[in-house]
Amino acid sequence: MQEAMNYACGSGADCDSIQPGGPCSQPDTVFAHASYAFNSYWQRTKSAGGSCSFGGTAILVTVDPSESSIYQCSLSSSRMKSSD
């Protein structure tokens, strides 16, 4: 998951907000930061054909838990583990 997040952050995602002290840096977990990075990447690249797969670690969802009205790229439930 870290590798996929690094790809997203290096390929168009705005990851400044998940850096230490950033407004979205908490919770400070790979899972939370990857979810943010994947969504940022997809929102910025979808019109140019960007995907939301990240090697099978992410999926498109129709309900954003914080907004309930937009499409969001989020982590695949099959990839959620307590160690992430």
Which properties best describe this structure?
84 residues, 2 strands, globular, disordered C terminus, X8_dom_prot, X8, disulfide bond, alpha+beta
How would you characterize this protein structure?
The protein is of the alpha+beta class. It has one domain (2-79). It is 30% helix and 10% strand. The protein has two helices and two strands. It has helices spanning 2-10, 30-45, and strands spanning 58-61, 72-75. Strands 1-2 form a two-stranded antiparallel ribbon. Helix 1 (2-10) packs parallel to helix 2 (30-45).
Please sum up the structure shown.
With 84 residues, the protein is α+β, with helices and mostly antiparallel strands. The protein is built from two helices and two strands; from the N terminus they run H-H-E-E.
